[in-house]
Amino acid sequence: MVKISKEILLTLFVTFASISIVHAASINDTKTLLSDLLTDYNKEVRPIQDQFAAINVTIIAYMKSIQEFDEVQEKFSFVGALAVTWLDAIMVWNPYSYGGLWQLPVSYKDVWVPELILSSPSKAVNTLGKSWNKVRYYANGLAVWVPVDLIESTCSVNVRNYPFDTQECVTSFNSMGYEESEVLLIPGQSEFDLSIYQENSLWAIAKTKVNVQTVGASSQIDLVVSLKRKPSFVVINVILPILFLSLLNTLVFILVPESGERVSYCVTVLLAVAVFMTIVSDMLPRSSEPVPLISYKLMMDMIISSLIVVVTILNLRVYNKDKSRPVPTWLRSLYHILTCRKCKNTKVFTLKRDENSSKIKGMTLHEDATQDMGSKFRHLKDAIKNVDDITWKQISFMIDWISFILFTTASILSFICFVATTYSN
User: Fold this and answer.
1) Residues 190-231: pLDDT tens digits?
2) Across 92-189, where does the E strand assignment appear?
3) Confidence of residue 136 (pLDDT cuts 50, 70, 90)
4) Fewest CB within a 10 Å sphere: which of 33, 35, 175, 314?
């Protein structure tokens, strides 16, 4: 980087010196200079005096915009440019001899350029550069080549924490055809130059990095881009609807059995969850390693919805069970516990007379009311019967409330665990 800076300063010095002496260069000066430089120029020969030395090629990466990031096809494309600079020992001239002409643009097809081949292509392997690209030469031999292109590269996708994921894509350029002892790639900056970058609506650039490594015998430069997904779209259109569907599914236990719509209601919600599973699977790559956590979340919702359908069907059988069949004792006890009979100060009376007094447990009979004991006893017997008369419908209502609380809690906990796990990573 220091070396390039000195060369640029030298070029500026020559430029100002030329301008101070010669006012302007004519078209003949440009034609003469171009003819003199390219007459014996052979682009197959590396333009360096010592053919055993390597040409140092400095590269600075620019990014204009992110064109596409396809998770399914694992493809990353962006509009960018590489500012490639090197010293050409052949393209050197004296500006004073050509009317002060200190720089000259030349088609890159007519001169030697370091062939940079995209070694991580998503389609065909192509070299960097178009027919309209120019290489700008300065009087001291400094060459500046800025090829702009739509770069399409492969990218290994990790969607484990989708939609709160961060992807790292590596775009590699290799100087194939030249060994590292002939062409050495050097990063001009350790990061991308994002001065002209336009923000993307779905992805934000977390960080960038430029590395150089040796692959085989040639030099390779890696452009690393870390992309962080903007999750607002997925949260609003996928995550929140899944949560609302899970909560709506539990409302089937509040729906009165007489409506006859319980089973159709919960089956409809089950199908809606299945549709969301299909939508999410289409948005993600067909990979088993790693499996996205959202797939586990949808599978858990599918299991919960399936259990709700089973419980709803079985509970309807309990609701419509024959009244003549007695409720088992354990269900009676469970009903008493869950309905908190003791909290309501409701007593279950037993008919047991005290030998020393005219009392019945749970109720005291005064001596002056013995004449009405027969009628009072009948009322007490009816009250005892009503207290212990627990029907199958009451048991069905109890199952509804237990299921409503249980499945609502499970749905909320499943959602919280999913968000906490994916967002924290």
Assistant:
1) 999 999 999 998 899 999 999 998 888 889 999 999 999 998
2) 103-107, 117-118, 134-138, 142-145, 148-154, 166-174, 183-187
3) very high
4) 35
Tokens of 184: 């050495």
pTM: 0.70
- Cα dist. 138→114, 269, 307, 338 in Å? 17, 71, 76, 90
β-bridge mates for residue 170, sequence order = 224
Number of H helices, E strands in the chain: 9, 13
Model pLDDT for residues 304-344, shown as the tens digit of each residue: 999 999 999 998 888 888 777 888 888 888 888 877 654 55
DSSP state letter for 226: E
Please give the single-letter amino acid code of residue 214. Answer: T
b/e sequence 6-39, b meaning 16+ C-beta within 10 Å: ebeeebeebbeebeeebeebeeebeebbbeebee
Unique residue bearing structure tokens 């024959």: 322
> Where do we find the tokens 């709700």?
308
d(CA 142, CA 31) in angstroms, rounded, equals: 20
Q: How many residues would you count in the chain?
A: 425
- For every residue of 375-424, DSSP letters joined together read HHHHHHHHHHHHHH---HHHHHHHHHHHHHHHHHHHHHHHHHHHHHHHHH
Return the SS3 of 66.
Answer: strand
Amino acid identity, position 385? K
DSSP string, 11-22: HHHHHHHHHHH-
Taken in order 242, 248, 250, 252, the sign of the CA dihedral is: negative
Task: Give dist(CA 149, CA 137) in Å, integer.
Answer: 21
Q: Which of 145, 144, 120, 142 has its CA nearest to residue 130?
A: 145
Q: Where are the domains of the chain?
A: 2-230, 233-321+402-424, 329-390
| DSSP secondary structure letters along 78-101 | EEEEEEEEEE-SSS---GGGGTT-
Share of the chain above pLDDT 90, in %: 27
CATH number of 2-230: 2.70.170.10
What is the residue-wise DSSP string for 345-376?
Answer: T-------B-TTSSEETTEE--GGGGGGHHHH
SS3 call for 254: coil
Which residues does 172 contact at the CB level (< 8 Å), separation at least 6? 118, 119, 120, 153, 220, 221, 222, 223
Q: Which amino acid, residue 355?
A: E
Report CA Rg, the chain. 41
Question: Token pair for residue 174?
Answer: 């290799």
